[in-house]
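Notes taken during the Thursday session

The instructor put the following on the board and asked us to keep it in front of us for the whole hour. The protein is Chloroplast light harvesting complex protein. We were told not to look anything up and to reason only from what is written here. First, the residues (156 in total):
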Amino acid sequence: AGFTADGDATNFTRRRQTELKHGRISMLATMGYITPEITGKLPGFLSPSTGLKFADIPNGLGAISKVPAAGWAQIAAYMAFCEVSQDQSPGTAAAAGDFGFKVLTSSDPAEKEKKLCAEIANGRLSMMAIIGMFFQDGLTGSAWGDWALYTASPLR
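Then, after some discussion, the predicted structure tokens were revealed:
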């Protein structure tokens, strides 16, 4: 797409950091989309004051309209905390995506490089996966998509 045609290393580094962050978020989102389908939902109440149980929340995009505004405020507040709780200025470890959570590490530099490359590749895959799940859910009403429910298909 020509984003790196200018050869600016600073812009490339910023884009790589953004890609890493979006990939990690997408991996979590993909697992969050799949997990309730496989394991079921948490017991108890999402909002005790309104009597809303976790079991009352549909999976997928249908959940957006069911979660109370206070729940969305809590999610936004946590996201903001995660963004501002560490110094991510250029040259810091956090700027390079190292937040101290060492799952993908190794004392062997070649093995560590292999794991980090796999993280980027899996992040790219999960970005495509979550967008595909959103698209399919939007058309069929389910992330797992019973395409028989999509009667407006141009392929019919």
